[in-house]
Amino acid sequence: MKKYIVIISMLISTLTYAQKFEELALTPPMGWNSWNKFGCDVSEQLIKEITDAMVSSGMKDAGYAYVVIDDCWQVGRDENGNIIPDPERFPSGMKAVADYIHSKGLKFGIYSDAGTHTCQRRPGSRGYEFQDARTYASWGVDYVKYDWCNTSTQNAQASYRLMRDAIYKAGRPMVFSLCDWGFSKPWLWAEDVGHLWRATDDIMDCWDCEDDRNNAGFTILLDRMVGLDSYSGPGHWNDPDMLEVGNSGLTVSESRAHFSLWCILAAPLIAGNDLRDMSEETKMILTNREVIAVDQDPLGKSGSKVRDDGDLEVWVKQLADGGRAVVLFNRGLTKEKMSVLWTELGYPTFLKAEVRDLWLHKNLGKFTTEFTAEVPPHDAVMFRVSP
Ligand code: GLA
Fold first, then answer.
1. How far, in Å, CA of 295 to CA of 289, rounded?
2. Is 214's C-beta closer than 6 angstroms to any atom of ligand 1?
3. Is the distance from the beta carbon of residue 120 to the nearest atom of ligand 1 less than 6 Å?
4. pTM of the model
5. How confident is the model over 187-224, as pLDDT tens digits?
6. Residues of the domain holding 217
7. Which of 54, 74, 249, 326 sits between 20 and 30 A of 154, alpha carbons compared?
């Protein structure tokens, strides 16, 4: 009898919290994360200054909401197993950081790892999942990025489901960001586990460099996203990693192409630069509302590559109003004339449609059959086609 009661109560508890928080991330999450620019050099001071800059730079008004502290905020566990934030770098504690971020109308994100240690050898959450989720909830965390280092023989699905359940049980809605670099093909199983999942290794601050661990520049990561578009949708997004716009490795035109393509993919838009010190060009790219509107389109479709002529690629995304967003991407070293055919948009050739350039903020007129534009080298032209 006792055995049955135990089994029934286990079943009930499973049914009551084996789910993720729905209604979060119905469009791709937007925010900022410390890793790309600052690595382990994170502190309370930095996070507060970035929070202020998010507001004063116009990033908040453009839709960026989450301020996420990546690896290295944690140094150990106390005798009860509670995670300890670095007391020197975060002297006021994480609740105070969260309160500050919330007081500016923004949301707070934090990082942990499914294994024994994070990628930077800080304590991971393995064995402490429920305790850590409760701690995050008590601090006011709104977003958890969960990495995959030092996981030995752990099973990815089981490990991520465990943390999902822990977050749900803790009772505070938190976006759950899976980061196993696409190793377990999370797009096949994580729709009911997380709100976004990394589909690639780490982005590097360059056009097409690559290291021996498959980390790479944005054009190479873009190639690895081909074919994954059908797995993204409201509440569950493919994540090709954070933005490098505003860091030093890309030219302005390359940054414009990077941002255009991340938006056509409906990628999470997580800035990775120093928001306190942005050039006008960087600000204009990151806060271009017409381009962001493509990323945030409520239909939640990821775009896909409809044509690949070597260095010249055409990417198309279906939009909620029946329109299409198009990126003409030139990877080559010379200016090129590029076209998109209406049939590649899923339109009949006779259809008359307005074309609006999303970088020039200009209506270009009504067209049938096709649209042609000149695309500078290492750059992209992005427009919206509205029948
Ligand atoms: C992994 C992740 C990165 C970052 C680092 C931190 O490499 O993919 O995004 O979080 O760990 O150590």
1. 10
2. no
3. yes
4. 0.96
5. 999 999 999 999 999 999 999 999 999 999 999 999 99
6. 2-295
7. 74
